[in-house]
Amino acid sequence: MVKQNNMAPKVGMVSLGCPKALVDSERIITQLRSEGYQIAPDYEGADAVIVNTCGFIDSAKQESLDAITEALDENGKVIVTGCMGVNPEDIEAMPSAVLSISGPQDVDTVMAAVRRALPLQYDPFTELLPPQGIKLTPRHYAYLKISEGCNHKCSFCIIPSMRGKLRSRYLADILQEAEALAAAGVKELLIISQDTSAYGIDIKHESQLWRGAVYNNSLLDLCRALAELGIWVRLHYVYPYPHVEHIIPLMSEGKLLPYIDVPFQHASYQVLKAMRRPASSDNTLAQIERWRSLCPELVIRSTFIVGFPGESEQDFELLLSFLRDAQLDRVGCFQYSAVEGATANQLANPVPEQLKQERWDRFMQLQQEISEDKLEQKVGQTLTILIDEIDHERALGRSYADAPEIDGCVQVLGEHNLHVGDMVDVCIEDATEYDLIATLAD
Q: Which of 31-40, 79-88, 221-230, 277-286 has the lowest mean pLDDT?
């Protein structure tokens, strides 16, 4: 057993925002542990607190400001990083000063602030760092970020100004991390980036050796290599580029989960044009049809925005028509929110808040009916699920159709001896609007 360095300062972490921000927090915690710092689970036990912020929309910015205020009140020594650090005026205007402000992915600045505030005392006994680094997710699944930044210029988004242009990690670096995660017991990898389909474009898809085989730094070859790990691999933030079609057969062959998360955002050509999104509903529907012909069990998840400036009733009806035709399995919907610095804020004809809410309600009602119908079709099937949570009366798990935190779940009823991280077969007995009800298969 390795002795804990009890003299080492303790650092708390508050991580807000998307999975990409969560990975940034994991990297910070990994670096803290590698240098000998301890991680505190609460304010009281922390010598300082790091707040990793989100600044994408107003509600997220307010949540971040509230978290910083709470950390200052409860602890006093606060280091701020993340997306709000790109434009720090709101943080600098707070009544109490923070120790440091930095943008996303800036582990060096965070660590410099930690070292200044909490210099380490020498202790010859230190903990070994887990080879997979420190993860904030449960032990049985992990996010794997394959690139930073984005080359798109969507009018509603300021992510490129916060995180910069596309910067892909090299395939060998990604696979080394993936192997370490699998060896540590991770059973599901969730592949994330700002634009997963663009992986490798910036490094010109150059080839390299990995475990004696030649791979290109491309999404297709990365997926082929990840498939060799023998665990679940789930793709998120996949833009519908033509080359994505070459990845779908890997799903039909059981090498990747037959699940794809595609941010379509809208279906009206006029709205998509104003969003600076290169797509049309006809092309998208044809693409979805091709994907499903290659992999009939494919589950498609997407997100949409209603109430975008200039969205007419006709535009919205086109969106509803697209939903009926596309029959997407999992859908999220947001009401347009003016983000400071986004070019969409200057567009004419903003949609009134009450109308945004009305359209959101209509959208969600339709998608709920679609979701309920698609889940009903699974009644009677046997599915393999990954157990996420156990309580006295049931276990909660996820099938290939369910990503953690954002999708539904499978509730396993009856007596069982299951544990978190188990993979088991279940019989689907019933369905609700978003979840499945099951019992253990014989």
A: 277-286
Residue 240 CB: number of other CB atoms within 10 A?
19
For the beta carbon of residue 290, count every other beta carbon within 10 angstroms.
11
Rounded Cα–Cα distance for residues 100 and 234 (Å): 36
Q: Which of 342, 268, 305 is nearest to 58 (CA)?
A: 342
- Give the β-pairing of 48-53 and 78-82: parallel
How many Å apart are CA 379 and CA 367, to the nearest integer?
19
Q: pLDDT tens digits for 244-296?
A: 999 999 999 999 999 999 999 999 999 999 998 876 667 899 999 999 999 99
**Does pTM surpass 0.70?**
yes
Check the CA dihedral 262-268-269-274 and report its sign. Answer: negative
Give CA–CA dist 23/29, Å, rounded: 10
Distance separating alpha carbons of residues 50 and 326, to the nearest angstrom: 43
| CA proximity to 171, closest of 133, 211, 134, 131 | 211
Structure tokens at 292: 């499903």
Classify 105 as helix, strand or coil: coil
Q: What percent of the chain has pLDDT over 90?
A: 64
User: Given the structure tokens 């006809």, which residue do they identify?
Assistant: 282
CB atoms within 10 A of CB 175: 20
Lowest-confidence segment of 119-123, 325-329, 378-382 by average pLDDT: 119-123
Return the exposure string of 382-397: e unless at least 16 CB atoms fall within 10 Å of the residue's CB, then b.
Answer: ebebbbbebeeebbbb
Domains in the chain (CATH in brackets) are 10-117 (3.40.50.12160), 141-374 (3.80.30.20), 382-440 (2.40.50.140)
Could you tell me how far CA 264 lies from the centroid of its own chain?
16
pLDDT at 75: 94
